[in-house]
Predict the structure.
Amino acid sequence: MAKAITSYAENHGGRAALLFLLFLLAIYNFSVMGITGFALVCMIPAGLLGLALAIKYQEALFWFIFFMNYFVMGLSRYGYIPVPVTMVTLAPQLILLLSFVVIPRPKKNSMLTIMLLAIIIWTLYLAIQVFNQTCSLPVNIGAWLQNMNFYAFYFIIAYVLVSKIINTPETIMRFLRIWACFAIVAAFWAWRQKTFGWDTTEWRWLIGGAMRTHIVGGSIRYFSFFSDAANFGCSIAASAVTFFIVALNAKTRIDKLLFWVAFAFSTYGFFASGTRTALVCFMVGILIYTLLSRSFKLTLFVVIAGGLFVSFLAFTDIGNGNMQIRRMRSAFNKDDASLNVRDINKAALKKYLQDAPFGMGINIDETSIPANNKFKVVYQTSNDSTYVFFWQRTGIVGVYVFAFMNILIFIGGAIITLFRLKTKTCRSIAGAFTCAFLAINVGGYANHILLQYPNILLFYGGMAIVYLLPAIESDFEVYEASLIAKEEERKRLKLEKKQQSRV
């Protein structure tokens, strides 16, 4: 390849130099002016090269997407991504999807599941939103397509990518291990912020407007490298649910150690976030797992431990000197000011949206709503949660459809965990993803975090794995047996070496 490029440059030096300069000009044009026709045409070769590489290295591209999905907000904050975030997240996903068309992946099971059906129902509802005339504004097809992308297509893409790539026992365990490492890094970054303070970039971001929600009533909320503390807290709490469950049932010592460490770090992380909802996410996820596990001992332990913990926060003042404990304790205070503000906002929205059962619509430029239009108030009112966000834009009907989608996905996962899986390891993995999915949705009910990075690929992608597990359960038994055999062999060799050293 290198020789071919060198030969071409020698024989066609002027053309090669011109093409290279045009490509650089296209990159500059894109970074300054956004997507233009000239930039698109000049970047076609780069797109074709990306597709060719994706065809050859499909799994490697997925792990790049997985990495960027988790760290993109932090990298963007520090200026390491000079292009729009979607260029390093959505563009590789679309290229990977195209590569599946050229070279299809081996099918492990049918892609048509309850989960995909639920997502399609939600997507069809958003599709007919193109006819929404609530605000009496001209239809903006560009805005509608962009919103379809963020509100619906991301769910479909996460489902398809994970189903196609993470469909073997090896890749599922790799998914969990890499996620565990990422969570440890995220919690460590929050510890760094708490111990050494915010760096210059983080201070600049806080002073730019984020300080209002991250220094509240004397409590400091740490956000790691996530978009904000609420997103970090809810996401890391749902991650803690995942790692707690898989750690309980991990078969090898290295996996058990990794997941317990990830659980401990994640637990620290959601306390450091100062996000009260994160505590509720964690408690709901663990409580639901006790029901799915069908273990009386585990249920009894969780109920007693959870009851003592809630009593500690709700009925005592112990640990009030710690700002994180004080912040979590406010979740049980009905007179908390920030909770009351949310109730006031919801009451105001209800008054305006009772005349808009389908919401303001996702087919308009929201910033162009006239000041004399009553739905301008709806747009300007803080939504505070993903469900309220969709209430504003898709109405009460849309909220019910969105909730139906998530409930259907959860029920399907619970049924698979309870009745379709036989092996302990597969049930624990399915239970972990299902309970984490419910936990993140609890977070989305109280905070606008469901559409934020890295949650869709982690938790909706995790549910795609749950729907795949029944088809590969027998493969998992073989894989698990091989892991145990390797570990036993390492133990035997280590013992032999130890005995020989004594001779």
